[in-house]
Beta-xylanase (Ruminiclostridium cellulolyticum), 856 residues
Amino acid sequence: MLVELKNNPFSGRGIVMGIINDNKYSHRIVTKTAKLSGLDGSVLKNTEVVVQQTRHKFLFGCAQFDAIPYVNNEFKGEEKERAEQRFDKFIDLFNYATLPFYWAFYESVKGQPMIKETKKAAEWLVSNGLLLKGHTLCWHTITAPWLLDMTNEEILMAQMKRINRDVSEFEGLIDIWDAINEVVIMPVFDKYDNGITRICKELGRIKLVSKVFSEAKKANPSATLLINDFNTSESYAILLEGLIEAGVPIDAIGIQSHMHQGYWGVEKTLEVLERFSRFNLPLHFTENTLVSGQLIPPEIEDLNDYQVKEWPSTVAGEDRQAREVISHYKTLLANPKVESITWWDFADGAWLGAPSGFITVDNRVKPAYDELHKLIKGEWWLKPTKYMTNENGEITISGFFGDYEVSCQGKRIGFTFDSSNDTVKLKI
Amino acid sequence: MLVELKNNPFSGRGIVMGIINDNKYSHRIVTKTAKLSGLDGSVLKNTEVVVQQTRHKFLFGCAQFDAIPYVNNEFKGEEKERAEQRFDKFIDLFNYATLPFYWAFYESVKGQPMIKETKKAAEWLVSNGLLLKGHTLCWHTITAPWLLDMTNEEILMAQMKRINRDVSEFEGLIDIWDAINEVVIMPVFDKYDNGITRICKELGRIKLVSKVFSEAKKANPSATLLINDFNTSESYAILLEGLIEAGVPIDAIGIQSHMHQGYWGVEKTLEVLERFSRFNLPLHFTENTLVSGQLIPPEIEDLNDYQVKEWPSTVAGEDRQAREVISHYKTLLANPKVESITWWDFADGAWLGAPSGFITVDNRVKPAYDELHKLIKGEWWLKPTKYMTNENGEITISGFFGDYEVSCQGKRIGFTFDSSNDTVKLKI
């Protein structure tokens, strides 16, 4: 796809041509004509304007659990400062964040959910331009321990009530949910007894998922609901087939890729993409991890079993992480079904204490962050770029789907780049 | 379960008490009172009668592919004699046989199915007291090669037509079918291109299985239809859940256990039984293999890849096979959901040339055959046994579900042992 930008002598050719010459991402890029006129309708011909991208349509996300203690004043002094530095870096790179709703923490005492605290964090993140996802409404791990005292019927009722309550409470703030997590293993999970495995065993996977989705849709009919799993084998594909045949309204397929044991590589990633692309549903890569230190040995089956006192980030590890991050994001972006990639976690030392962040524990920015920034806000982004309108007041712009802004003579107006080829008419 | 057989001074206490003392099989055993009278209604009191079992309700089966060339006079001279010796042994042990319907062989030339030859074999086997199963109506392996020249729509039509034709043709002779085989891998099977993988990929597993079952039911509404797989993992369980939720009328779950790489052992067998018992459907162990020679190395993933010139049966291997056969059959019989066990194959040198038979290539009967015979027609069987009726003409008998015969004063009458406890009234 090569578009001759003949009317744009001042365009940032390097950037734009870079994007549109790369067929890999053609499904994410559109070339559009914008016709500019003044508020009085006069054609804005032969005029210099500046266009810039303000937002990606693609969801570049990251787990964001610190926001809750931060906005609820749990961080003090230096800790608070470090958190603020991290937020600045976070907001500069991402347009999407995953907020925790782990039932064991969110409602550790039955009837006392952390609605207020979580809502405060959600509002703050939204005010910083982030779209939010809630993680997760139903999961056998980190679930409410008090479910164990209930009958299966009561557990199911509590689970439905919880879904209805939280999805309703956060409507407008959080309209994307990991509705249910890790269903492939859910009924046969045998590490410890828990309420969710009990009801999944009794109802079966399909009936439980169906109930979870239907309750969440009832609470917020316009919510985007994901099923999410770390199992990327044919088992998950077979489960999805059963769910789809049963009419469960899955809006997107969530795929975890915690690569603590080493980068999948392009070949495995393409295999996974092929396996799940056939459902013709959006794919969300919900939990992406590449560590910048020691890899977890291959013989460890459950990552939670890897317990180390120290897990440092190393120079060689950070170099490897950066290279793998580039490869991973490029491979995923090249598949038209992928609509979201969420990094897990932003800073080192979170889940498993792993050096999985883009930032070290002492807030040093790693090469992976810089390299990803060069893609998301560089190669795949239209920085402020001068254009000259033609005799008809038109400019032709190419860019990734998303939000853009044109400014001219001290005035500015926003517009959206989607897949249509219609001319954008802008009065400025 | 201990029943005092006080009225039966002549009963074969050893045998009957052996059975009924063993709780493991209590779900397969019933204790019943039979009341005997003469044809004129007179009570047959204090009379000696002989009772014997004539058939197991449980399906003890085996693959039986030789019957087709045999009844169609393809065996001559010594080969024919050896086949006859094998049939004698076969019929003495089994009440159930699996006949081949591999599409590639059954209809190698489109429009010329081996109906006549196969029907002749089926009739002969039925006349020898065997219940029959057809294997298989839809499978990506050994399928008709001429499907490759068709569009997917045409392949599906040919598949449906084939099902309808063969299930209708054999109604009354064959009313049990492995309707579809190895669906877990079917759409992702990538060893070679074939028509069935093509349509399974396009339709999805659930839609294809649904169509296959519905066509077979249409052709023979009272047929017992199985789905059958070698994949005994949670993937198969998830597929079954999807099929059941989609309303596919599965009559029994078929589980293959080709143990060429070594006996599963009791623990794995119990795991598999637990995994599939939860569907509350009959379980048929459709393809059971334990070799009496070298095991296939664990690194071989597809058994078909193990190609050896000679694969001899050894003394140590035959001893091991016999012990494992006993353990395998006992483990399976102990589970109430299991209704059938089919051995694969009867004689050595069939699939893969493996020493998987109960009989060697030169017709020597292996210890496994004798040991299994001691169970099926010994421990689990009521041999001719004398009983004495009481004052009311009653005898009390315990035995495995199945068909029995009582004889008295040169006359004989058959009756069936099922799970009911009703008194059997017999006029003799």
